């Protein structure tokens, strides 16, 4: 596994696989994201738990207004806000919009949303984050805080540090990689997911071939159709943090909670109107002990994921984020769902989903 990682001898791995196939008592178990989600909720909640693939999809209607927010409940919450001149950003080498100093890394959940600009400032190609709190956020992985490593579960301090680095690698490969953002298959990110986790592998196989409400690649990956839009610059603004604890069977369970801001223009040459798509994802993963779970070294088992996206498309399941510009916005009315501030990180993703409930397309308070 490199850098403090534990490498499993080939003969030991083969023994694990043989025992698992034979049903030997104490053999490693093949992980199930569904089972993991149920177990976690049993610990944390009362009442009947829901698995990562057993959810009640929210009513999702096409938005009619400046912003449309689509909400995807239980496994993923998809908020979609539409406003070309005021929508939050995505790449943008110019950074721009902020004369204030960059914010310190987010060490814990803030107690309030970021302040609102006194006057609306529209983004430009030169300053794609202008008028947005993201102007003070970090660029790429620099905005994602890693905690200090300590020995946890089956891992030593060095192994935990390596797992945290690999976790951030997954976030970069799934939500920051330029090729993936242009619609390419996220091969590097997928390679980090336990190939023996069959329910997740089934989802991945279906999501890119036939995206749907249930099998939507946007739950884990950020992708835009390159024939429709192109990035402004090469910077994605981010803000978030990674935490961890001991999980089941001594695993190291890692939770990532990150907001990404992507600025784009239409794909046509000469396009200058900047729209911003804002995506907040919470991905929970388990770095399992190969002695107890059937897993390839250097990969993690997926526990759960949730996503909240502004100006990425409402009730559309094309496999791509579909930001709207002024022309599309003018053709729609206002959303009928609740208001959502896409920059507000003061509430957990679970709380955000409870607040929005079954609403379909709502209204983003800013971009």
Descriptive notes:
It contains eight helices and ten strands. Helix 8 links the parallel strand 9 and strand 10. It has one domain. Strands 2, 3, 4, 5, 6, 7 and 8 form a seven-stranded mixed β-sheet that branches. Strands 1-10-9 form a three-stranded mixed β-sheet, with no helix packed on it. It starts with 9 loop residues before the first helix and ends with a strand. The longest helix has 19 residues. The chain has 367 residues and is an alpha+beta fold.
Keywords:
367 residues, alpha+beta, seven-stranded mixed beta sheet, three-stranded mixed beta sheet, 8 helices, 10 strands, 21% helix, disordered N terminus
Portion of residues in beta strands equals 15-25%
Oligomeric status of the shown chains? single chain
Q: What gross morphology would you assign?
A: globular
Using the CA coordinates, give the radius of gyration. 21 Å
Uncertain residue ranges: 1-8, 19-25, 32-98
Total domains: 1
Largest sheet: 7 strands, mixed
Distance between the terminal alpha carbons, to the nearest Å?
41 Å
- Helix tally? 8
**Record field, number of beta strands:** 10
Look at the helices and sheets and give the structural class: alpha+beta
SSE ordering: HHEEEHHHHEEEEEHEHE
């Amino acid at each position: 596994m490199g850098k403090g990682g534990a490498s499993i001898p080939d003969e030991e791995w083969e023994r694990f696989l043989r025992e698992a196939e034979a049903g030997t008592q104490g053999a490693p178990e093949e992980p199930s994201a569904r089972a993991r989600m149920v177990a976690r909720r049993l610990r944390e909640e009362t009442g009947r738990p829901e698995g990562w693939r057993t959810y009640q999809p929210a009513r999702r209607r096409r938005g009619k207004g400046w912003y449309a927010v689509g909400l995807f409940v239980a496994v993923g919450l998809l908020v979609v806000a539409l406003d070309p001149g005021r929508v939050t950003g995505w790449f943008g080498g110019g950074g721009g919009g902020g004369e204030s100093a960059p914010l310190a890394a987010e060490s814990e959940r803030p107690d309030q949303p970021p302040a609102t600009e006194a006057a609306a400032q529209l983004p430009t190609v030169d300053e794609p984050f202008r008028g947005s709190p993201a102007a003070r956020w970090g660029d790429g992985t620099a905005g994602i805080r890693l905690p200090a490593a300590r020995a946890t579960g089956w891992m030593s301090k060095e192994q935990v540090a390596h797992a945290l680095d690999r976790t951030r690698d997954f976030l970069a490969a799934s939500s920051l990689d330029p090729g993936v953002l242009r619609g390419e298959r996220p091969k590097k990110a997928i390679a980090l997911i336990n190939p023996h986790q069959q329910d997740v592998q089934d989802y991945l196989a279906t999501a890119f071939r036939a995206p749907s409400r249930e099998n939507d690649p946007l739950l884990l990956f950020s992708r835009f159709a390159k024939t429709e839009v192109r990035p402004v610059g090469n910077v994605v603004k981010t803000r978030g943090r990674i935490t961890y604890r001991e999980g089941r069977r001594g695993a190291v369970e890692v939770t990532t909670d990150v907001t990404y801001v992507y600025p784009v223009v239409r794909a046509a040459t000469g396009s200058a109107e900047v729209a911003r798509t804002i995506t907040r994802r919470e991905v929970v993963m388990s770095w399992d002990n190969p002695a107890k779970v059937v897993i390839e070294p250097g990969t993690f088992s997926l526990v759960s994921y949730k996503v909240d996206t502004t100006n990425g498309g409402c009730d559309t399941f094309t496999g791509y984020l579909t930001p709207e510009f002024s022309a599309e916005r003018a053709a729609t009315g206002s959303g009928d769902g609740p208001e959502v501030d896409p920059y507000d990180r003061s509430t957990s993703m679970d709380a955000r989903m409870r607040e929005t409930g079954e609403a379909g397309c709502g209204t983003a308070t800013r971009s």
